[in-house]
């Protein structure tokens, strides 16, 4: 997603640059500016040799989408960005500086966010690996959900009323027929999903979360007093992770 964000950002500025600055940068285009040497292209003969004095900065232009991407990348890494800006400004007007200033400011914000996300994910994964060195491979989670025959029938009715997918209804009808054939009242569905950062955080800070729950239970018990209506101590608290049966898929 971060790479897609950066691609959209580059593409947007490339399109704007092509609309405003297409075809204005070429060899010897900026002879009256302070960066004329960077855009100079001279072909002269010295003795028996032909010498080409070339500045090469005219290649950084907005003539097509590829050149625009290369130019924006050079602006991102701050590679003599003022030469490109002055060349464009000399061929247009001083208002062109707003394009480069906006690109520079937005680049700083976007790149800072991207780097922050990458560093945060790296530090979290490093801390998790350090704290769970002997843990199993966290490739996924299997969730178990037990459904009765009546609940399955109600789901089928909802599918019929809402005109759900035919394939899903066929699978549910097949499960219902198997339950009737084997005289079963319940069926267990297994769902698989990949681990998220919340799952890893729960596992990583399981002990701390349990201490927080116990401390919260003690405070509630002290506030309610000996005649409190809850009557539950820290041992009866239900901690996160115990509300559903799950196991690691290896």
From TrEMBL:
Residues 214-250 are annotated as: Disordered. Residues 235-250 have a biased composition (Polar residues). It is a multi-pass membrane protein. The keyword Glycosyltransferase does not apply. One of its GO terms (cellular component) is lysosomal membrane. GO terms for molecular function: monoatomic ion channel activity; voltage-gated channel activity. The chain crosses the membrane at residues 6-26, 65-83, 103-124. Keywords: Membrane, Transmembrane, Transmembrane helix. It comes from the Eukaryota. PANTHER family: TWO PORE CALCIUM CHANNEL PROTEIN 1 (PTHR46474), TWO PORE CHANNEL PROTEIN 1 (PTHR46474:SF1). This is Two pore calcium channel protein 1. The lineage of its organism: Eukaryota, Metazoa, Chordata, Craniata, Vertebrata.
């Amino acid at each position: 997603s971060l790479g897609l964000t950066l691609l959209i950002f580059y593409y947007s500025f490339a399109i704007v640059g092509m609309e405003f600055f297409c075809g204005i940068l070429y060899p010897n285009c900026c002879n009256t500016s302070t960066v004329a040497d960077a855009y100079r292209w001279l072909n002269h003969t010295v003795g028996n040799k032909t010498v080409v004095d070339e500045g090469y900065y005219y290649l950084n232009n907005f003539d097509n989408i590829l050149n625009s991407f290369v130019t924006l990348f050079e602006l991102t890494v701050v590679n003599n960005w003022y030469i490109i800006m002055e060349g464009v400004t000399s061929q247009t007007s001083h208002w062109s500086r707003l394009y480069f200033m906006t690109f520079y400011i937005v680049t700083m914000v976007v790149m800072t966010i991207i780097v922050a996300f990458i560093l945060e994910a790296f530090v979290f994964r490093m801390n998790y690996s350090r704290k769970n060195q002997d843990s199993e491979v966290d490739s996924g989670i299997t969730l178990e959900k037990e459904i009765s025959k009546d609940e399955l029938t109600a789901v089928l009715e909802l599918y019929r009323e809402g005109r759900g997918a035919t394939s899903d209804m066929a699978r549910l009808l097949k499960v219902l027929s198997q339950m009737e054939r084997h005289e079963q009242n319940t069926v267990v569905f297994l769902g698989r999903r990949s681990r998220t950062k919340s799952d890893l955080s729960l596992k990583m800070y399981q002990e701390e979360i349990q201490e927080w729950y116990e401390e919260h239970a003690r405070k509630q018990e002290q506030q309610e007093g000996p005649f409190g209506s809850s009557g539950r101590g820290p041992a009866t608290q239900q901690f996160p992770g115990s509300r559903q049966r799950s196991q690691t898929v290896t």
